[in-house]
Predict the 3D structure of the following.
Amino acid sequence: MADTIQLKEHPILITLRDVVSGDGFLAGITLSGRALVRQEDDGAWWMYGVRPSAIADSGTTIDEAFSRFRTRYKEVLFDMAQDSRDFDQFRAAVEQFFYEPDADGEDEHLWEEALKAIRVTKCNPPEPFAHLPREAPESKPAQITVERLNRADARFKPSDNITDTYSVPMAHAA
Amino acid sequence: MSASVAFADIVKMLEKCAPGHTIRLANHSRVIKYNNLSYPSLPKFDKIEMGHIRKMARHLGILDCAKKFGIA
């Protein structure tokens, strides 16, 4: 069995799907993002957003941190829907939120460095990350889609449904 | 629960570290804007956990200054 790697910042891939009502529109938002998870000195697990950057939340376990991070993200979407006069303004606000990096790009740099460390050592993630799904970041680029759902040509399929997930990067490139 | 800081102390820090910033109350969160950057997810509680402040300060590019106030 491969050794585990000790990291201060744990890189995470997140997938979230939301349907949000706005003033005269219904929007579907699908996020494929990045976050760093870190256990702070007081023992709390914090999930710090990388894409999107301007968000964080915590918990006593990584599951709780993800759950609270997810709720906070949803609330940001709700606020943006409340503050947007139409769908185009909502989409612009959500895309700006997702693609705006922190002032010096530090978190993105830390995420890439943590991934590099995993790849160089080819080690398994430590507890409590060991049992999370593993995915290749290369096959899951950071991106967000904001789609208007209330349009005449909209087609809905069961395959549109996506489960909220968080996963760790695979120790080898896809 | 993580260490928390009173929102009033965060405002004092922002006045020194982020001159010209704006704070807007949205339905669920506070929206902090500074230097063409936006932090739309600061909780609306009276006391805010350190991790939120740390992330906001890093996002807005004022982390070193905020650390001098001992709240990041």
